[in-house]
Amino acid sequence: RSVLKTPLKQAATSHSVLTELQPDCQPLTTPPKPKETLPADPWTPTSNLKMLISAASPEIRSREQRKELSDNPSEVLQAKHCLQEHLSGDEYEKSQPSRKEKSLGLLCHKFLARYPDYPSTAENNYICLDEVAEELNVERRRIYDIVNVLESLHMVSRLAKNRYTWHGRHNLSKTLQALKKVGEENKYTQQIQMIKKREYEHEFDFDGERNEEMARSFGSSEHSEMSFVELPGMEFRAASVNSRKDKSLRVMSQKFVMLFLVSTPQIVSLEVAAKILIGEDQLEDLDKSKFKTKIRRLYDIANVLSSLELIKKVHVTEERGRKPAFKWTGPEVLPNIQGTKLETTSTTSPRPISESIPSKEQCSKNLFPSRGKQNFTRHPSLIKLVKSIENDRRKIQSAPTSPVKISASTDQNVSAFTSKMAQVPVIAKHQLEGQSKKAKEMKMKLSGSALDCNLSSPEAVPKPQPPRPAAPAEQPALPQPLGVCPPSHSPVSPVILPQTHSGVSYAIYLHPSPAHTVTTYSPSFMLQPLPRANLTGMKSINSKVVNKITTEEGDNQIATDDPTKCLTAKERPNIKSETSSQRCLKRSQALQESNLIKRCRSDEESLDTSLTFFPSGYLIPLTQCTHGNKAGFSDEEKAGICSLQHTTYSSPIAGVIPMTAPELKAVNIPAFHITPLNIMLSPTSIAAAPVLSGSSLNSSNTSSAPNPSSSVLNFTLQHVGLIPTGVQVPANPVLQHVPVSSQPENVSHSSENLNLQEEKVSKNIWRLLDRAGLSGGYSAPCVPKEPQGPQAATENFFRTPGGPNTGPSLSANSDGTNRISQGALYIPQRKLEVSED
DNA sequence: TGATCCCGCCAACGT
DNA sequence: ACGTTGGCGGGATCA
Question: In which residue ranges is the amino acid composition biased (Polar residues) (predicted)?
Fold first, then answer.
């Protein structure tokens, strides 16, 4: 291959050159410029699209001509030479598209420019890959890259071969919510922590075995595939044309996004993301090449996400050095809001994998893109195959979706749902955008402003007013009042601070609206209490101060935090609040569900009416269920299913979420070493109670929480053998390490200087804990995993290498009871600073 | 150099 | 068989 490659490469090169040079032109001579510029320049939204489109046909023709030429090497070369001759060196150079000019990101911009962010449902926004490829002058392959990720966000859906439907951002917020939810269910947060921890250990730990061991455990812990997350309304289309292995890009993209949505500072390094993603489908296999490949893919995804302005590249500086990372700049994802309306009624039909079939079908039509080979009756296209092993289980055949689903109809439906909630903001955004995207960009660059926030994340925008009547119960304010992490959810405006320190500029994110100030709550951080204004003021504060603050933070944390709290703090509260609120709201609608909820408290968190988690990894929106109803399932049935599902899968996950300093988000200062230690406890074990009960995050912790967590911790440690039976470790995470050494460092140290020794010590500790936690804690009490076979592995997130899924997981097998098994400890985040750009 | 990531071979999948 | 998708990773660019 390689051999061939070289030669091919050259040919290719020349070809590309040619292509680039002669965009729409005729053969040789045409100066490249014209076209080149055209596409490249203004991405002004949709406007010039039309022009491009109109130009399409001719272009295509020219393209073909080009192709012919390219086939003939000599000609190509000649052409090239001609160009060179005609153009001076510089010019030639210019004409020669630099790599950047051919970047996927740029291409994506062009692509996006063709379609409106919020297309009217009426118009048919279909995309013909060939056309696009032609118009943009790229190989179709590249278009696939873009479309695949767009598909993962449900911004497009495949209609048929070579054809996609453009949905724009109408479904974005819902998609993100769904993804967030799944991410939470997958315990991505924990996984991230785990990885970080591992890295930490690696720093000074050479012991291969240990690493491997860890890796193994880690890898095993994940569930492998969660497939594509569907959205209500979108399902059909998505499913309509199956795609073959729904494995990668699409899914990878969703997972990647999930990572952002679940991490507290919404920053994800490629490395971590790659590891997590790898872990999912391939246990261990730290294979370097695989890792590399994953990274490559992530870059691809990141490029398009960047084009969508959902993320932006940043660098995270750690002790190690700078690491590429991306920061979420998209809309904040509100917990479940959306769902309220949609879901409501019904029921979800979740079912355990094994039995799922029936409900599956109903929903399935929408949902899945199952991979099964078999076709189902009506729509062969819908059917997807499940992977070999997994297939059995997961394979879900999708019922035929009615072939009927036409994009238009679907869109309407979707839009209908969406509209109420999101519409307003969306529209606003739209208008704004329309006015001047450029202006917007500029603004953004300058510094975040409320406007930006709005623009960037219309959907996310805190709903000032309760938009939809539909969700009466859901008070708009709900989140805030509850004290539920508003901070994290609310959009923040970054302010760039001239940082003295490293010369790196840091940004402090301020919430656009004063109201948000509330958010500051954060048990662990001193800073939190500070009003935004104060934060702002911080700019002037020198690093010292900052450091100090940091320290304090740490102290506080130590003093105050307890594992429980950690758990509770951010996510939990939110979730809970959501849940509760939702419940109330929904109640009428879904009594059944509530019942279910009662049954399993753990479920509460996850209980998002709108979505159901399939073992297979599919999310089924209630809406879909609704569809399912059509299919003929009774609500009861569904309900039953749902209950099952919830019981089985949803449980612990949400509860486990480790808390990181919410503030981080609010204040992004390098100095802040935010490293709350997180202890993963199974929610259940903790008795989700405190968390759940305490609607407010704030209140949370202090009292009740600590105990449970500490006990768990102790249990774990003891179990593992890290500490003698009699010994008790304080609940406080920090302290946990303490036994070995002083842990303060873990918690906080001035960004720049970590005490190396301490670090080492802590590392060691971690290592021990890790080991213990992983091998011991994880595996501990387990229930034998069910032989679900192939899939089982997939589904369990935190399965121990050994086998039983200890994790909080979603394993189908568990009786719903949660075990304490997981005693994973979180390593403090080591992120020291984030530099943008 | 390491970070990025373009490019296109070629294998699954459809049809 | 042939066209569509898209996994994958070599190796070119960029910083």
Answer: 806-821
In Å, how far are A474, A480, A481, A565 from A455, measured between CA atoms?
24, 21, 25, 34
Angle between helices A756-771 and A208-221 (to 10 degrees): 60
Report residue A573 as tokens: 């509260």
Mean pLDDT of chain A: 44
Name the DSSP class of A539.
Answer: T
Q: For residue A52, what is the enclosing H or E element?
A: helix A47-71
Distance A29 CA to B3 C1' (A): 37
The length of chain A is 837
Q: One-letter amino acid identity for A558? A: I
Beta-strand ranges (E) seen in A41-197 are 126-128, 156-160, 163-166
Give, as ranges, the nucleotides of chain B with any atom within 7 Å of a protein CB.
3-10, 12-15
Q: What tokens were used for A291?
A: 């890792």
Residue A18, both tokens: 């040619």
Q: If we measure between CA atoms, which residue out of A420, A456, A424, A419 comes closest to residue A437?
A: A456
A279, two tokens? 């872990």
Cβ of residue A291 near strand B, that is under 7 Å? no
Cβ count within 10 A of residue A493: 20
Which uninterrupted H or E stretch holds A268? strand A267-269
- Candidates A555, A499, A503; CA nearest to A527 is A555
| Subset of residues 4-23 in chain A with CB less than 7 angstroms from any atom in strand B | 4-5, 8-9, 11-13, 15-16
pLDDT digits (tens, 9 = 90+) for A535-551: 222 322 222 222 222 22
- Give residue-wise pLDDT tens across range A437-472: 333 333 333 333 333 333 333 333 332 222 232 222
Distance A271 CA to B2 C1' (A): 14
Q: How confident is the model at residue A835 (pLDDT cuts 50, 70, 90)?
A: low
Q: Which amino acid would we find at residue A387?
A: K
Alpha carbon distance A779, A821 (integer Å)? 6
pLDDT for the residue A286: 63
Which of A533, A527, A537, A529 has its CA nearest to residue A513? A533
Q: What is the pLDDT of residue A190?
A: 78
* Orientation angle between helical segments A73-86 and A2-21, nearest 10 degrees: 50
Q: Which residues are CB-neighbours of A164 under 8 A, at least 6 positions away?
A: A126, A127, A129, A147, A151, A156, A157, A158
Closest CA to A669 of A490, A821, A484, A506: A506
Protein CB footprint (7 Å) on chain C nucleotides: 4-15
A67 touches strand B (CB under 7 A): no
User: CB burial class (10 A; 0-12, 13-18, 19+) of residue A634?
Assistant: exposed
Would the Cβ of A161 be found within 7 angstroms of any atom in strand C? Answer: yes
Q: Report the sign of the C-alpha dihedral through residues A357, A359, A365, A369, in that order.
A: negative
CA distance A418 to A176: 13
Token reading at A591? 């009594």
Contact A814, A795 (CB under 8 A): no
**What is the Cα–Cα distance from A268 to A330, expressed in whole angstroms?**
14
Question: CA–C1' span, A506 to B4, in Å?
Answer: 24
Beta-bridge partner residues of A128: A163
Q: A326: helix, coil or strand? A: strand
> Burial level of A174, CB count in 10 A (0-12/13-18/19+)?
buried
Ranges of each domain in chain A:
104-201+244-328
Question: Where do runs of H (alpha helix) occur along A609-748?
Answer: 622-631, 635-645, 651-656, 662-666, 683-686, 689-693, 697-700, 706-720, 733-737, 744-747
Tokens of A806: 């200890």
